[in-house]
Design brief:
mainly alpha, two-stranded antiparallel ribbon, extended
Length: 194
């Protein structure tokens, strides 16, 4: 029997790698279930992360405005934009429900504009497919603009489902991957060592 290969032609895996896959699978599974069970808390967490990003981005713009050899108008523009972005981030952190609404509205308007752009895009092939995609994008955008919380809940459900499936897959990989015993021989979990 080849020591470097298991019975399924997969290389044996070190215990640390198996443990890492197992831990990552458990964390993904728990995060997915928590997001599904607590969608409001998940949305607040997403808005906080987005708000922190905006605070850092605004501060970066302000730093850029006062460092380097930029012109006066560019410096003024960077300061104004930096203050607006920073204020938006602070507002999102302090008022998460409003941040969820703005995030939903932003995605809705993006889909609406994407649909309009797709509708007027010059295509020679598959025009019916392009029009169908444009109509679906515009309808989704209008729905999300009118019901931003509904879109946010669907987004949380989609992300949590992906996390749950990913966690299960990683746990199965961690359990089913061939491992190496103390002597260096490959050992399958369901096949006794010879």
């Amino acid at each position: 029997m080849d020591v470097a290969r298991s019975t399924d032609d997969q290389p044996p895996v070190d215990r640390r790698l198996r443990t890492a896959f197992g831990v990552l699978g458990v964390v993904a599974l728990l995060a997915g279930v928590a997001a599904l069970v607590l969608p409001h808390a998940t949305l607040v967490a997403v808005v906080w992360v987005f708000g922190i990003y905006l605070v850092v981005a605004g501060a970066t713009l302000l730093v850029r405005a006062f460092t380097g050899g930029t012109g006066a108008w560019r410096r003024i523009g960077l300061v104004v934009l930096g203050v607006l972005v920073l204020a938006g981030g602070v507002f999102a952190i302090l008022h998460p429900p409003v941040g969820v609404r703005w995030l939903g509205l932003t995605i809705g308007f993006a889909w609406l504009l994407e649909g309009i752009t797709l509708l007027y895009a010059p295509t020679t092939d598959h025009r019916v497919l392009a029009v169908t995609g444009a109509v679906l994008s515009m309808l989704s955008g209008l729905l999300l603009i009118n019901l931003p919380y509904l879109g946010a809940v669907f987004a949380v459900a989609a992300v949590s489902s992906v996390l749950i499936v990913s966690g299960i897959v990683q746990l199965v990989i961690a359990v089913r991957w061939p491992r190496v015993d103390g002597s260096g021989d490959a050992v399958r979990p369901d096949v006794p060592a010879v």
